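Researcher: Here's a chain I'd like modeled. Treat it as a single chain, no partners, no ligands.
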Amino acid sequence: MKYSTCALSGIKVNEDRLQLYVNGRETIQKARLIYGNMIGAKREGGKWKFTRYYSLCENKHKIFLKEGEKREVCPICKQKVVIYQEEPDEMLVEVFEKIDKEILKLLEAAISKNIIEYTEWQNFFVFVNGVGPTIAAELLSILPPEKFNWKLAKLKSYAGIGIAGYCENDNYLAYGSQAYKDRKPVPDKPLNGNCPYCGNPLKWRAVNRGDPVKYHRQAKALLTYKLATGLMKARGVYYQLYLKFKEEITRRHPDWNKAKVSMTAVRKMITVFLTVYLSISYSIRHNVDYKTALIHVLGEKEYNILRTHKDFIDFPLFDDFVDTDKKTKKANYTAKKTLERLGLDEDDLKNMVVFYQKQIKQED
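Model: Modeled as a single isolated chain. Structure tokens:
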């Protein structure tokens, strides 16, 4: 039997390969977690320790415990129990260490080798502190820009971080292309931002855990946990944006609790990051300047609204453009060449330097 090679050529092969590496790493990580729980693996001070605890009653009911957890009676038969502590067999520990140090490292090395071929890595991710090869690979495989036609609203809706409109009177909820009444799907869509049943303006909010809307849960976890944690730990320019958003939200909503304020600030930070991600990708792949790409990503109507705001950011945010660690104006040559490739002129570059200086002063 003969096979056509045309379907196996070009970037498609790279994307499929990267997707396999990412899925493989995710699967092995889950296996490591399950296996580690079985043998009592716990990381302390950068090293793994292996001790498991369990209770045993007269009826031989063996139930595992967390470290420090107390139990006096068996939850099954209510008999008194004895708490045991034991270390696993050396062979079981050796298997765990092979998974952790060899198999996962092998996949991560393959991801690092393949990610450098991607435009988004070469022109964006590589300049952002807190975004390494594995997070970048997950973004490109789970949220590839072309899947959403480089539209921010579509990507956010898919990932569960978009905005939902709701009407309390009719128990109506609209999210992206989805609409629900009494928690059941309906074809009726909002009319000019109003409820299609009573005509009242919809109230807009983030999607709640109990909402019936559909979205990609892995994508949401990637953005709001993995990516957000990486950006905030790196304490780069996106972390500075998070602090700025947090301060603004606290001032506007003094009645909100700290968790709600923080999560809202994280969503706004991630929105800026995704806007740059899609805009740079569209700019390079379609050979247009950054601002043209930005209009496509946001939509012309949304862009014209946002551009009137005093703090609107119409240029890409790079950590490597200005060295925030040394608190200097030092421009990274590679980053500057990339910005020139995106069609940004000298005035844009000056605006970026001013912006970064403000962020650095806020940090001080």
